[in-house]
């Protein structure tokens, strides 16, 4: 078997030595650092957040426990609101290209939770999505009716009204939460929606994708043209009878199929 020439061997030994003493040479190994090893948690959590926002992650239940601090920083900092702002700007730019017919049939659909209203105060007290969803405590929060508006969503909502869009609210909340939801929306600054569609008895047990698609389909049957749709869940936007343009606002805290 041929052996390495002495010159090559000394270069190889020198390279090995340099690798051991100089971390910069090990830079490429950092991309395969395990999540949780020093310094990589934020990187991993940003990537995980991108994966859920793009729906690459598909169905998931709770956020990785190692991401609680990272998501708390995102959700309580400027980035979260800025993300809504940029999306609202794109939605509005599209809305301005729509020819409004003036017959009241040009529709923009909004979801409510984490789209018009923020439940961050609830999720702050429940681990930012690291705890399994508990419907009783969430419903108690909903009944309080104190969820604030996202500034960007309120801005978009009012701008769409001014442009002549008919606003329809389509939520996974139950029909028996109509009154507290309406009060909360008004207190948060929203007004003049054409319809507020909530889950009735016949919608129980349906996936959000199916329920919302059916509701959109009924609107289209009634002659409404669904130009835009804004929601924090892919199940707000996908399925059938989809809007001409769908706008996904961020939600790294929970996933609704
Ligand atoms: Mg929502």
TrEMBL record:
Asked if DNA damage is a keyword of the record, the answer is no
Q: Which keywords does UniProt give here? A: Glycoprotein, Signal, Storage protein
User: Signal sequence span per UniProt?
Assistant: 1-26
Q: Which residues cross the membrane?
A: none
Which Pfam families does this UniProt record tie to the protein? Acid_phosphat_B
**Domain of life where this protein originates:** Eukaryota
SUPFAM superfamilies on file: HAD-like (SSF56784)
Q: Briefly, what is this protein's role?
A: May function as somatic storage protein during early seedling development.
**Family recorded in the similarity comment:** Belongs to the APS1/VSP family.
The name on file for this protein is: Acid phosphatase
Taxonomic source organism: Microthlaspi erraticum
